[in-house]
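note to self — DONT lose this again. spent like an hour looking for the file last time. sequence + predicted structure for the chain T wanted, 101 res
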Amino acid sequence: MLERRKEQRLAIALSGKIGFGRHRFRLSCWIANISSSGARLTLRGEADLPPAFTLTVISRAQVEYPVRARWRQGDAIGVEIAPLHDSPAGVREPRGSPGAA
């Protein structure tokens, strides 16, 4: 399989929260891997998500990232961590870093 990622992902097993609609809607997810530019998430069933949303990594220090969906396959979704200048309105700047998560 051709690897298209710009950087290697860190395999992790952390819980996450997907937020959208000014954080009125939140879904739980499982974060399988992450880097500074993206992540692979597994949802607890298929869900209708907007193209851009926030991903909160649940760990000792919660970290929130603005992300956008790049691909979907069943209950798995690949996301790109959005550069701050491309963040959708209402999304806060990320706190921390993937290495700290």
